[in-house]
Amino acid sequence: MSASTHQPIPITLLTGFLGSGKTTLLNGLVRQPAMSRTLVIINEFGEIPLDHQLFSATEDIELVTLDSGCLCCAVRGDLVRTLRDLPGRFSRGGQRFFDRVVIETTGLADPAPILHTLMSEPRVARTYRLDSVVTTVDSVHGEASLSAHFEAKRQVAMADRLLLTKDDLAGTATRTALHERLAALNPGARCIAARDGHIDAGEVFGLDHHSGAETAAALDRWLAEPAPTMTGLKLAEPIDTAPASPRTGSAVDKTPPPHDTRIRTDSYVLDTPIARVRLQTWLEFVLSVMGERMLRIKGLLNLADETAPTVLHGVQHILHPLTELPEWPDDDRRSRLVFITCDVPRHTLDNLMAALY
């Protein structure tokens, strides 16, 4: 069946630190029937580009390379032009040859600017939608990479899925330590072990940020530990807008271990429904205060006078349009909000949340 030209094309961002096995994993994925009619964009970085030569395309897969620099730096304009031109370049008779796009980044790429580009460029946002951010992590060397390279932490913190490569080569203690580290950095991301470079494509694609089941499942993982329940607090102190070292964790403060304190995941449960007008004003305020320090914000919200939940998803200072789901995924009608931030102390978020009511 030919692809519809009216439905937004899903994009999966495949990232992961140097040597974590992105290309090997992608080679295994594209051989699966579920991956037919996929267009792969590989971002090369270096004087002699090799990654696209290591990628084995099939007759149902299209390949495009971007080799003028790292996507998160100089070549975002190239990415926009490439995505803009793809439907015309890979189509015939008005029908596209592809139904989804996978973008493989360089090992040093920061996902945030790329997501910002996907969400903020009008021509791109009209044609495509973000399906998921998938990050590969080397089970053997992953913890060392996380300790030595801040880029690796950001890649993990912004992921919807964490794919653990070389898992069969790591010892039990190494795997356990890595799982604990990943859970501290991003408790909402599901970890899946890929053995011999193989993983079911259904575990990676079709996650869709606007899916109620997926949103609820991720929020449940983020909120697996107690989160503060707020019923309409008042602003207790002036909001601190400058970067600062986070406070030490408490029973409800999910602060990562000391070596990861720059990146935090903080979650909130709200008993009281939120007025839509108040929410819009509050979101503008939050984005102005947080800026690029807010890596991601996700939420399932109970808005006053609405019977169905609303999905909130943003990257840095760009928000997806609020989307109403057909129904609540479970019996819990409380609003749930999760922030993934960099250099933002917990008390700043507490005060921002208090300003919501």
- What is the percent of helical residues? 25-40%
Regions with little confidence, pLDDT below 50 for 5+ residues: 45-60, 68-75, 231-258
Q: Which CATH class of the largest domain applies here?
A: Alpha Beta
Number of strands: 16
Question: Order of strands in the sheet with the most strands?
Answer: 3-2-6-1-7-8-9
CATH topology term of the largest domain: Rossmann fold
Integer count of domains: 2
Strand content: 15-25%
What does the radius of gyration come to? 20 Å
- Full CATH superfamily name of the largest domain: P-loop containing nucleotide triphosphate hydrolases
- Compute the number of helices: 11
Question: In the CATH classification, which architecture of the largest domain applies?
Answer: 3-Layer(aba) Sandwich
Largest sheet descriptor: 7 strands, parallel
Strand/helix succession: EHEHEHEEEHHEHHEHEHEEHEEEEEH
Give the overall shape: globular
Q: Whole-Å distance between the termini?
A: 49 Å
Mean pLDDT: 77
